[in-house]
Amino acid sequence: MSEDAKIKSAAADAVYDFLDDSKRLDDIDALVLRHALPPGKRMQEALDPVLDLIAQGKLKPEDLPKRFEEKLGLSPEAARKLALDFASVLLVPLSSMLPEVGRALGALGIERLSAPASLEHPVQAVSANAFVHGELEKYKLELPEEHLQKKFERSLSEFVAKRKTREETLETLTRPRKVGGLGLDVYASARLL
Length: 193
Known about the structure:
Blueprint: H1 3-20, H2 23-34, H3 41-47, H4 50-55, H5 64-72, H6 76-95, H7 99-105, H8 128-138, H9 146-160, H10 166-174, H11 186-192
Helix pairs in contact: 2-6, 3-5, 5-6, 6-7, 8-9, 9-10
């Protein structure tokens, strides 16, 4: 593997580590609270895939206000405020790994971190969070309560990203709800993984 290929591979790994970190979901939850957005599937579908779409080059940071207006029904000013907050919390760290994201932050009026100009867009695949979310939607696997669904997705994402072992994930999925688990069936959980 050439030195340039090693650099691009390391950059892609850094991007995936950032996208797959469960702190990203916590950051999104904090944005929802800070902007008093109504919780629910509509909000989740509007916000959760944004980082992956930007990392894949399918959504430009400067298009965030328009996306939030359309997907969440926000006023132009509220959508712009949410986009600025989203970008400053979630995209500024990503800009050091993806130069094109850093360059695009200027369109939102956000100062970017310096990024090496020699790196090209390293991300082609999907992050663990996006993969899990897509698969759960595809197979219509939903838990009855939103907070349980988020925990379910987060647990599976950590397993897919190899931050948790199969046993740790099974423990979380099958442990009773009263003690911090999801209370799912052992056999069904094992088959899911």
